[in-house]
Each structure stands twice: as structure tokens, then as C-alpha cells.
Design goal:
It is a single chain. The chain is built from 9 helices and 39 strands. The radius of gyration is 33 Å and the shape is elongated. With 644 residues, it is mainly beta.
């Protein structure tokens, strides 16, 4: 008697059912399903009585699945036929079958799968332990138009696993239930999410294409593409999260950052694949990180020979080279027994991508899309299609307070002073021993100082200030601390046209390969005619027509590193430089005022990163009015006085 009482108490705590509900469970010898609406109330905005069908309501419900049969249920799946425009906000102990992250629109119905525990054991093998026999999914979300006393129940619930027969359900007020029994001849006809979605645009897209499928494993090709004309990735790292205990056995074209099979050996994978030599498996982590291979591996028969692979993690914008805007690799993925079916193909979730520079990308869940096509590797004109294709779209997010890595200085033919990069443009290390000021505006420079490292400019800068009777602050301002600086110099300004010179300086100790720069102007871009030493033009596909894109000529697209001077004792280190003159016409830009500001860029990008711009522009008291153009910095007034 005591034992029966104990079981009843456990039953009451874990599944708070009424007497009729308890009876329904006891009479089920299979898989018991129930959906219980527990509470809800209206939430803003208030649309009743004017538009009651669009009034949003919070709802809370409990989906229960319990194995009361004699066989363990592997990888349970339950379909819930939501029908009131529901937006699901949270779900405990389960995820959506298609991998969509919450919140998600589920108003047309959705399939839940167990997570992290997916298998439901029997009462026999657990001595009636309901925590192992069943799962409760607590649902919280928003539904539309169903107010009390009506109850927003789904149209149906059913088991989505193959091999079960589910009868019509029973509804009792806010509760509905049914019992599904084993039937090996029955296959699920639930087809949620089978419609292919159109391909989407984004800064970066990732395709997950299954190209070979077997009972226990499949081969997939992962393709990373950059679409933003001003973005690039260097030394990319790609990661995701397996949801069904999959593991990577082999790869071509890329490699895990850590080769580790211990999770397989001591986990569920090792229990099933008892004859497998896991020393050959590459990675068994739930969240692997993948890196590109170096170019030397491109022709390696074991690890390379994949088109667009092995570029050391560099992906360039399509405006530079379409063939270098893509990176691809293939991998062999092994599945677990409950997924053994060559048509059971599910991509990983929670994708993340980043480059050498800390770039924040927000990636969408994988979406099923039309099958990708690949050219025939033999060179024939035919194409092959993937077995299944998913797309992940990633867009760059702006990091608040991000520090630039490049800066710009301005100069002109009508002023002998260079407006330098801003003080601490690329950050300043805080230290009590600092003998410079991080808040004082940068001092104007003589043009020859641009080629001298900041730590060697003090003498030239102070002498130049004294020559022009400009005050010297104490302490002097700190440097810009940028690895790359760019000087934009107005060369000439005539009635029918004008010219400018751009100079790139590399102050780092590493060569910059395949560099590119982009400059945005308010009015000047339609007038661009010629760029002498670089390849460049107005950036196509930009409706505003306000951006000039430039890169080095073929074979010369290297910005060399800083190097020692000729005499280490007398000469400072010398930056790597590249320079070009740009010619503009005024015929296509009537009314342009070059010297008053239209001839200077409003934004500058180097290798996809926005550079810090000076707060003011060069001025000439004899050629310009007192209303000198500046960008609104509080420090501009001080610097403007210096200029005059």
C-alpha cells in the first residue's frame, strides 16, 4: 500500500493531472500525448473592441509526452497544430525540428523534438521513473484573437515519429490528449517546413549542401560567400552546434582547430560505433571550430582538391575578385542510430563566423532552400545537384565603442599644414606613466613628417608649431596608434576639373596582401575619370553613387611592412607606402566646391574597416570665407585657429 501511495505522489508531482487525465494515462499502452492550456491574458497594444482579431494575448501551456509502452522511443517528435498566429517565445526541454531559434512564428504548426534529452525509456527499464519515461515542454508565447472564456487550443497534436498510429484526439475544456500505439506499417505524413525558401541576401552567406548520403553518414559541402562589396574575412573561423550527437569523421579543404575524438570514445557515439577506429575521427565536440587550410594544401589529394579551398582563411569582396569571394570545404558527418535513414538530414544550428579582426556577425538559423547546382568536375557541360541544401545568412553588426585600426590625414595645395590623424584614433593604452595627453588635439604637421613614425616626429612637429607661432600644449598629444594611415591631398583645383593624391602608409611589421580601400564623398564621385597607379572606379551597384573603390594593380597589390631606415642610428624606420593620383572632372558635378569640403571624403574604409577621420579640413584664409568646413567636433574650433 505504501508503495502505491509513493508512486501516486510521484505521479501527481511530475504530471499534475486531474482524475480524468490520470485515467487517460492509465488506459494508454503506447505513447501518451497531451496539451494543457494553463493561463493567458491580453498584452499591449490594446486593440479591442475596434480590432479584436488582432489583439495579442500571452499564453502558457504544457505539452506532455509519456512513454507508457514496452519499447523505448528514440528521438521523439511531436507535431502541434498551432492555429492562432502563435509566436513561440520559449520552450523547455525541446527545440523546433527545423532548427529555427526562438522567438519564432509557429502559427501554421510546428514539430518539437526533445533537447537535450531526446529518448524516452519505458517504465519497465526505469522502474516507473517518469522523469526518464516522459518530458514536459512548458510553452510561453503570444497568440492573437482568442479571448476568455474561449481557449486557444491547437487544431491537433500528434506523434511525428514513423511507426506509430495515432487516433482522433479527445478535448476536455483547456486540455486535449491522445494515445499513439506501435504500428510498423505507418509512416508520418507531417511535412512541416518542406517548402523551399528563396535564397536571401546578406553580408556573408553560408550554404550547407549534402552531396552524398548513406544510411549512417553523409558528405556535405560548406560554402562561405561574401556579398558585401566592402567586406572581407581574414583567417576566418566557422563554428556551429550539433543537436543530435553527430561528429566529424573526415574533411577536405578545411580542418578543425582542435582534433579531438575523446567525446566520441567515452560518449554515445562510442557505445554504438564499437568497431570504429576513432583515432581517425577529426572532431567529436558539440561545438566544433573550423579553420581554412594554407594554399600549399590546395593540391593535396587527401586534404585539398576542393574548388575555392585552401586560401589561408582569406575571402575577398566580390568587387575585387569574384573567384576569391568564396571559400569551400567538404566533411563527412556520422549520425546516431535514431537518425539512420539516408533521407534523415538535419543541419547543425547556432552558426558563427569571425575573422582575424574581431568582427561581429549575426547569423540566421539554416533555412531549407532550392537544391544547389555544381559544375561537373570532369569538365562536361552538365551539372550535378545537391541532395539537400540549407542557407545561413550572416550580417555584420556594429560593435559599440569599437576602436578603428586605420586613420586618415588631410592636406592640400593651398595650405602647408597637414591635418593629422586624431589623437588616439586607434586607441591609447591607459598608464600612469604616460607622458602624453590622450585628450589634446593632434598638432598640425609639416608634410615631410608624414613619412616619420610618431615617436620620431616630436622635433619636426614642435619646430613647425613655433614657426607658425602656435602654442604647444604640455604634455604633448599622444599618437594615433594606427597600423595603417591614409593621407588624402588635394593637388589642384581648376575651373573644369581637379586632382587629388592618396597615399597609404603601413606602420605594422606585416605585409598587407590584397588590400583595398573605399572612399565616400557627398558630390565628387560622378566626376571620377582616371586613377593612375591603382585600379579603381566608382563602386557599381551603389544607388547613391557616392563610393570610389580602389586596389593595387595585379602583381602590385602589396602594402609592404615598416622597415628599418638606411642608418639605424640616424634614420627612423620607414613605413611601407603606395600612392596614386586621381583625376576628376567638374562637368558631371556642377556646383561642386572642392576646396570648401566637397573634395574631401566623408568616410574612408581600408580592408573593410572604417577609418578615423580628422575633425577639420585644411583651410586657406585668403581663398576661403571664415565659414570653413568642419565636421562638428568640439575640438574643431581650436584646430581651426591653428590652421589660420
Amino acid at each position: 500500500m505504501a508503495k502505491l501511495l509513493f508512486l501516486f505522489i510521484i505521479f501527481f508531482i511530475t504530471l499534475p493531472l486531474s482524475l480524468s487525465q490520470s485515467t487517460a494515462v492509465d488506459s494508454c499502452n503506447g505513447i501518451f500525448l497531451s496539451y494543457n492550456y494553463t493561463s493567458g491574458y491580453p498584452i499591449p497594444p490594446t486593440l479591442v473592441p475596434e480590432d479584436p482579431s488582432d489583439q495579442p494575448y500571452r499564453f502558457e501551456s504544457i505539452l506532455t509526452i509519456l512513454n507508457t509502452g514496452l519499447r523505448e522511443l528514440k528521438s521523439w517528435q511531436v507535431y502541434v497544430g498551432f492555429q492562432h498566429g502563435e509566436v513561440l517565445v520559449s520552450a523547455s526541454n525541446a527545440v523546433l525540428d527545423d532548427g529555427t531559434l526562438l522567438p519564432a512564428n509557429v502559427g501554421n504548426g510546428t514539430i518539437f523534438v526533445g533537447f537535450p534529452e531526446r529518448d524516452l525509456k519505458t517504465a519497465v527499464e526505469t522502474a516507473g521513473d517518469r522523469s526518464q519515461m516522459g518530458a514536459q515542454v512548458r510553452l510561453v508565447g503570444t497568440q492573437f484573437g482568442v479571448a476568455e472564456p474561449d481557449v486557444p487550443l491547437p487544431s491537433t497534436i500528434t506523434l511525428a515519429n514513423d511507426g506509430f498510429s495515432c487516433p482522433a484526439l479527445t478535448k476536455l475544456g483547456s486540455w486535449m490528449h491522445l494515445c499513439c500505439t506501435k504500428d510498423s506499417t505507418t509512416r508520418s505524413n507531417i511535412t512541416i517546413g518542406e517548402d523551399f525558401q528563396p535564397l536571401q541576401n546578406g553580408d556573408v552567406t553560408i550554404m550547407y549542401d549534402v552531396i552524398h548520403s548513406y544510411e549512417t553518414n553523409y558528405w556535405t559541402q560548406v560554402t562561405i560567400s561574401i556579398h558585401n562589396p566592402l567586406h572581407r574575412l581574414d583567417h576566418w573561423k566557422l563554428s556551429w552546434e550539433w543537436k543530435r550527437d553527430e561528429f566529424i569523421y573526415a574533411m577536405k579543404g578545411a580542418y578543425p582547430s582542435v582534433i579531438d575524438s575523446t567525446d566520441c570514445i567515452f560518449g554515445k557515439q562510442g557505445e554504438h560505433y564499437k568497431e570504429m577506429d576513432f583515432s581517425n575521427a577529426l572532431n567529436c565536440k558539440r561545438k566544433p571550430t573550423i579553420i581554412d587550410l594554407p594554399p600549399t594544401m590546395a593540391s593535396n589529394s587527401d586534404l585539398g582538391t576542393i574548388p575555392f579551398c585552401c586560401r589561408n582563411g582569406t575571402i575577398l569582396p566580390p568587387t575585387m575578385d569574384q573567384t576569391k569571394s568564396v571559400s569551400a570545404f567538404q566533411m563527412q558527418v556520422f549520425k546516431m542510430p535514431n537518425e539512420f535513414n539516408r533521407t534523415q538530414l538535419i543541419p547543425p544550428q547556432n552558426w558563427k563566423i569571425m575573422g582575424e579582426v574581431k568582427q561581429d556577425y549575426q547569423c540566421s538559423p539554416p533555412v531549407r532552400v532550392s537544391l544547389s547546382r555544381f559544375p561537373n568536375p570532369t569538365g562536361l557541360s552538365s551539372e550535378s545537384t545537391a541532395i539537400a541544401s540549407w542557407q545561413v545568412v550572416c550580417n555584420k553588426t556594429e560593435s559599440k565603442g569599437a576602436t578603428p585600426r586605420c586613420c586618415v590625414s588631410f592636406s592640400s595645395f593651398f595650405n602647408d599644414s597637414v591635418v593629422p590623424c586624431n589623437t588616439c584614433a586607434c586607441g591609447c593604452k591607459s598608464s600612469r606613466s604616460n607622458i602624453c595627453s590622450a585628450s589634446v588635439p593632434a598638432l598640425l604637421l609639416p608634410s615631410e613628417a608624414l613619412l616619420v613614425p610618431f615617436e620620431n616626429r616630436t622635433r619636426k612637429t614642435t619646430e613647425f608649431a613655433k614657426l607658425h607661432n602656435r602654442p604647444l600644449p604640455k604634455p604633448l598629444p599622444c599618437g594615433d596608434n594606427c597600423g595603417v594611415s591614409i593621407n588624402w591631398h588635394l593637388n589642384t583645383d581648376y575651373e573644369d576639373g581637379w586632382t587629388a593624391r592618396i597615399t597609404l602608409f603601413n606602420w605594422d611589421e606585416t605585409d598587407i596582401v590584397d588590400w583595398f580601400a573605399a572612399l565616400q564623398f557627398d558630390k565628387a564621385v560622378p566626376g571620377i575619370q582616371t586613377m593612375y597607379s591603382f585600379n579603381g572606379s566608382a563602386l557599381p551597384g551603389i544607388s547613391a553613387n557616392n563610393t570610389i573603390f580602389m586596389q593595387g594593380k595585379p602583381g602590385l597589390n602589396y602594402l609592404l611592412a615598416e622597415k628599418d631606415g638606411k642608418n639605424l642610428k640616424k634614420n627612423p624606420r620607414v613605413p611601407g607606402t603606395q600612392q596614386s593620383v586621381l583625376m576628376f572632372t567638374k562637368k558631371t558635378t556642377p556646383g561642386i566646391k572642392v576646396a570648401r569640403g566637397d573634395g574631401f571624403p566623408t568616410k574612408v574604409f581600408f580592408n573593410g574597416e572604417e577609418c578615423s577621420l580628422p575633425s577639420i579640413l585644411p583651410s586657406n584664409a585668403y581663398r576661403m570665407s571664415a565659414a570653413t568646413i568642419f565636421f562638428g567636433s568640439p575640438l574643431a574650433v581650436v584646430a581651426l585657429l591653428f590652421l589660420q
